[in-house]
From TrEMBL:
Keywords: Hydrolase. This is Phospholipase. It comes from Chryseobacterium flavum. The keyword Hydrolase applies. Residues 16-202 form the Phospholipase/carboxylesterase/thioesterase domain. Transmembrane segments: none annotated. GO terms for molecular function: hydrolase activity. Belongs to the AB hydrolase superfamily. AB hydrolase 2 family.
Length: 206
């Protein structure tokens, strides 16, 4: 089973934009859902790109399941993110002007992609997510973020994402020279709160 490249767009037309934001939806969500969130972000002058997962799911099992159980969907999903980045680069947008926003399964996918492909990006906000796998395979994660700002927001507890994995992810990204800010909200639930949006705006989309 693999995804078919299907990128929904909004904001400034890609060929006229200097910055691009790649938005990655969660399980059961859609590209249109996550794009609608952009009205709350400081991204008025960005091209917005949101890949759509086949059947609204990037991979079938928990992100904490053994990686091979989520294949070949996971590799296909990572390829979709790579193709979305390539679309922005091909339009003349520099990697340091490419930004990411992901929620839940989309946050996990964004963080896994970034950790595997670290370089100087514009920044990333990941709400309720962490790198993928039952065990963290540090050998998969290569590159240097060169100070890329990353915001991680989450709830503790969260039914899907243990807070320990969020902290472990933050540490990996820091080792790779990302400027990481994490914020943990007690018993907030599996959703995005207004303070997380404000922090994403002040740290990433400033």
């Amino acid at each position: 089973m693999s995804h078919i490249l299907n990128i929904k767009t909004a904001g400034i037309p890609l060929n006229q934009a200097e910055k691009a934001l790649i938005m990655i939806h969660g399980r059961g969500g859609s590209a249109q859902d996550i794009l609608s969130l952009s009205q709350h972000l400081n991204v008025k002058d960005y091209a917005l790109l949101a890949p759509q997962a086949l059947n609204h799911t990037w991979y079938p099992y928990s992100f904490m399941a053994p990686v091979d159980q989520n294949e070949p969907w996971l590799s296909s999903a990572l390829e979709m993110v790579a193709e979305t980045v390539k679309a922005a680069v091909d339009a003349g947008i520099k990697p340091e002007n490419i930004y990411f926003f992901g929620f839940s399964q989309g946050a996990c996918l964004a963080l896994e992609f970034l950790a595997r492909n670290a370089q100087k990006f514009g920044g990333a906000a990941a709400i309720i997510g962490g790198v993928i796998g039952d065990k963290i395979n540090r050998e998969n994660y290569k590159g240097d973020f060169a100070g890329t700002p990353v915001f991680l927001g989450t709830s503790n507890p969260d039914f899907h994402v243990p807070v320990e994995r969020v902290y472990a992810t933050a540490n990996i990204l820091r080792e790779m020279n990302a400027e990481v800010t994490e914020k943990v909200y007690a018993n907030f639930g599996h959703s995005i709160n207004t303070e997380e949006i404000e922090l994403a705006n002040s740290i990433i989309f400033k």
